[in-house]
C-alpha cells in the first residue's frame, strides 16, 4: 500500500508535531513501514542527518518515533528566520537563499515541485507517510501559494485531520472556523478532528463533540488527555512557556539552578532538554538581568542572529551581568551562537552585515562569519567521556588560548562550543555538571542513572500509547488506507469573500 494522512492544526503549537510522532510510533509498532513528512517548516530548531543535511528537529524526532533514519526528503523546505522579515531557505538540507516574505513567493513554484517529488519518493518506499501541516490551513491570505497544508493535500489527494488545543480555550469555534474558511475542494479532504490537551470531566465535553459533528458532518476521532512531560523537540518558541520535563526540586545546596538566556532568535533550545531531565536541576528561561542573579549556571544557547541578539543582551543589562558573574568565578556556558558572543571579536559581513563587533571578551577567541554553512556530526572526548554531537553554523571560531573543550575552549568559569547536542551524552553531561557544581560551590551531584536517550524513547512510547488508547485507530487506519470519504458536507461559509 501507499497510504498517507495529513495532520493539520487550528494554530501553531496545537499539537501537530506530537500527534504526528504518536501516529508514527503507533504504526511502527504494528509493523507498518512509516515515515514522517513536513513539506515546509519554519523553525529555528533543526538537526543534521547522518549524511549532513539540515532538517527540522521535529521531523528528526518523528523519524525516531517511526524507527527509521531521518533524511532530507522528510523536510524538503526549512525556513530559518533571522529577523521579523527575512529567513534563510534550506532546500533538501542545504541553504540556498536569504529572502524576505515577498521574495519567497518567487521560489514557491520550484519548491512545490521539490515538495511533491520528495513526498512521492517517500510514498514509493514506505507503506504510510504521516504528513504534518504548518500553522493553520485556514490562513486564507497564504492559500494561493500553500505547499504544506491544503495545497499539499489537494495535490496528493491526502485526507486531513485537524488538531485543536482545548487547553487554550475556544476549541470548538477554532475547529469549526478552520473548516468553514476553506474552499469546498479543500473541505472535501478534511475528514475529522482531534482534540488535544484535555483535562476535566469527559462527560461535560461529550455534548460539544456531538454538536460539532452535527454542524460539520465530521467526527472527533479522539480526545487526547493532557500529560505533563510530553514536551519534545518543539518547533515553536511558544513551547518555552510550557511546563518543562524533569525534577522541580526546592532550592537548596543540593540543587543546581540553571538560567537559559531566551534570545529573541533563540535556536536549538532542545540543547538544554537533557539538563531539565536531571534530578535536582531547576531550569528557567531568562529575559532580564534579574533572572540571572540566583543562577548557578548561565547558558547562552544558539541563535540565528548572533550580532542582533548580542545587542539585545546588552540593551537589557544582561551582558554586563554575565561579565560580572564570570569575573566573580561563576559558571557561564555558551553553545554555538552563545559561544560566539563570548569571544573577544566578531566579524560578520554575512548574517547581519554589521562588520566588526566587540564580543563579551570572556573567551580568548575570534569569530569570522563565512558564506559557507558548516553542517556536521562531530565526535570527540571531554572529561574522559565520548561525545557525539552536531553542528550548524556560519561563524568560524579561532581559539587563541584557554583549555581545549570539545571544538571550543574553556577559560576559568566560562565554557564554549559550537557543538549542539553534547549534553545528550550521559557521561559527559554528568562530568560537566559536576565540574559546574564545584566551580559554583554547590553540593549538587548528578544522578548516576539518567539515560537521556532512554527517556526520549519512553516519551515516544507514551505518545504511541496516547494514540492507541485515545484515538479511534480503526477510523484513522481507514483514512490512511482509503482516503477521505466521499460526500462530506460543505460547512458554511465556504471559501473566503473577495476583498
TrEMBL record:
Pfam families, sorted: CbiA, GATase_3
- Sequence ranges assigned to domain CobQ/CobB/MinD/ParA nucleotide binding in this UniProt record: 6-230
Indicate the segments forming the CobB/CobQ-like glutamine amidotransferase domain, all copies.
Answer: 257-427
Q: Does the keyword Protease apply?
A: no
- Keywords per UniProt: Cobalamin biosynthesis, Glutamine amidotransferase
Q: Write down the InterPro entries for this protein, in alphabetical order.
A: Class_I_gatase-like, CobQ/CobB/MinD/ParA_Nub-bd_dom, CobQ_GATase1, CobQ_N, CobQ_synth, GATase_3, P-loop_NTPase
Chain's role: Catalyzes amidations at positions B, D, E, and G on adenosylcobyrinic A,C-diamide. NH(2) groups are provided by glutamine, and one molecule of ATP is hydrogenolyzed for each amidation.
Q: What is the recorded name of this protein? A: Cobyric acid synthase
- Native source organism of the sequence: Actinomadura graeca
Amino acid at each position: 500500500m501507499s497510504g498517507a494522512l495529513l495532520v493539520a492544526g487550528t494554530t501553531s503549537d496545537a499539537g501537530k508535531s506530537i500527534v504526528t510522532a504518536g501516529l508514527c510510533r503507533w504504526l511502527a509498532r504494528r509493523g507498518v513501514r512509516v515515515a514522517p513528512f513536513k513539506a515546509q517548516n519554519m523553525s529555528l530548531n533543526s538537526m543534521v542527518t547522518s549524511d549532513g543535511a539540515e532538517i527540522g528537529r521535529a521531523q528528526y524526532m518523528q523519524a525516531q518515533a517511526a524507527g527509521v533514519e531521518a533524511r532530507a526528503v522528510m523536510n524538503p523546505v526549512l525556513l530559518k528566520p533571522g529577523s521579523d522579515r527575512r529567513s534563510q531557505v534550506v532546500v533538501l538540507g542545504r541553504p540556498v537563499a536569504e529572502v524576505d516574505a515577498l521574495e519567497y513567493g518567487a521560489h514557491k513554484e520550484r519548491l512545490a515541485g521539490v515538495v511533491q517529488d520528495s513526498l512521492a519518493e517517500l510514498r514509493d518506499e514506505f507503506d504510510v507517510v504521516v504528513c504534518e501541516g504548518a500553522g493553520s490551513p485556514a490562513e486564507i491570505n497564504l492559500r494561493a501559494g500553500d505547499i504544506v497544508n491544503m495545497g499539499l493535500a489537494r495535490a496528493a489527494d491526502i485526507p486531513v485531520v485537524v488538531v485543536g488545543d482545548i487547553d487554550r480555550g475556544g476549541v470548538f469555534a477554532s475547529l469549526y472556523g478552520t473548516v468553514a474558511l476553506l474552499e469546498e475542494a479543500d473541505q472535501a479532504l478534511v475528514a475529522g478532528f482531534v482534540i488535544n490537551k484535555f483535562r476535566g470531566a469527559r462527560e461535560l465535553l461529550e455534548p460539544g463533540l456531538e454538536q460539532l459533528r452535527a454542524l460539520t458532518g465530521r467526527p472527533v476521532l479522539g480526545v487526547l488527555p493532557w500529560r505533563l512531560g510530553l514536551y519534545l523537540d518543539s518547533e515553536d518558541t511558544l513551547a518555552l512557556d510550557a511546563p518543562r520535563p524533569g525534577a522541580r526540586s526546592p532550592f537548596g545546596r543540593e540543587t543546581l539552578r540553571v538560567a537559559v538566556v531566551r534570545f529573541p532568535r533563540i535556536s536549538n533550545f532542545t540543547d538544554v532538554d537533557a539538563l531539565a531531565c536531571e534530578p535536582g536541576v531547576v531550569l528557567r528561561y531568562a529575559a532580564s538581568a534579574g533572572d540571572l542573579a540566583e543562577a548557578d549556571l548561565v547558558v547562552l544557547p544558539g541563535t540565528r542572529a548572533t550580532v542582533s541578539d548580542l545587542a539585545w543582551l546588552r540593551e537589557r543589562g544582561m551582558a554586563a551581568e554575565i561579565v560580572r558573574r564570570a569575573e566573580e568565578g561563576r559558571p557561564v556556558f555558551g553553545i554555538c551562537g552563545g559561544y560566539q558572543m563570548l569571544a573577544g571579536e566578531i566579524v560578520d559581513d554575512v548574517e547581519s552585515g554589521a562588520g566588526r563587533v566587540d564580543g563579551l571578551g570572556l573567551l580568548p577567541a575570534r569569530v569570522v562569519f563565512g558564506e559557507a554553512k558548516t553542517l556536521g556530526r562531530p565526535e570527540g572526548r571531554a572529561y574522559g567521556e565520548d561525545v557525539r554531537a552536531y553542528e550548524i553554523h556560519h561563524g568560524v571560531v579561532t581559539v587563541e588560548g584557554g583549555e581545549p573543550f570539545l571544538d571550543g575552549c574553556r577559560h576559568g568559569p566560562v565554557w564554549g562550543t559550537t557543538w549542539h547536542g553534547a549534553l545528550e551524552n550521559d557521561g559527559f553531561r554528568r562530568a560537566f555538571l559536576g565540574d559546574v557544581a564545584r566551580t559554583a560551590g554547590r553540593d549538587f551531584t548528578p544522578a548516576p542513572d539518567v539515560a537521556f536517550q532512554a527517556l526520549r524513547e519512553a516519551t515516544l512510547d507514551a505518545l504511541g500509547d496516547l494514540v492507541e488508547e485515545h484515538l479511534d485507530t480503526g477510523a484513522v487506519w481507514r483514512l490512511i488506507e482509503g482516503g477521505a470519504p466521499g460526500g462530506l458536507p460543505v460547512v458554511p461559509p465556504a471559501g473566503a469573500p473577495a476583498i
